[in-house]
Specification:
Blueprint lengths: L5 H19 L2 H11 L3 H6 L4 H12 L2 H11 L3 H11 L8
């Protein structure tokens, strides 16, 4: 199993936080996320850097291609970069013995 580097982890966390900041700028983007997760705006504020929240943010964006494309455009990055960050945050695949 290949270990992720600390630098990769930090870049992935930073991108996930950028995606979250993009979402919170518009209630029409934020409300579907809050509804899907059951979070309140206050809970999201308190836990914004929690790894589980960052995972949920990337899961949410990756689940809707138009949202992914809009986010990537707004962040001026290719959608593949967001997809790669999403994959890096996934639990590792374990091979059967």
């Amino acid at each position: 199993m290949k270990r992720k580097s600390l630098q990769e982890d930090e870049a992935t966390d930073s991108l996930a936080l950028d995606v979250l900041l993009w979402m919170v700028q518009d209630p029409d983007r934020l409300l579907p996320f809050l509804n899907a997760t059951g979070l309140t705006p206050d809970a999201l504020r308190r836990a914004r850097e929690d790894p589980a929240i960052l995972d949920a943010v990337l899961d949410h964006v990756m689940a809707d291609e138009p949202v992914l494309i809009a986010c990537a455009r707004a962040l001026e990055c290719p959608p593949e970069r967001i997809a790669a960050a999403w994959r890096r945050r996934r639990p590792p695949d374990f091979e059967a013995p």
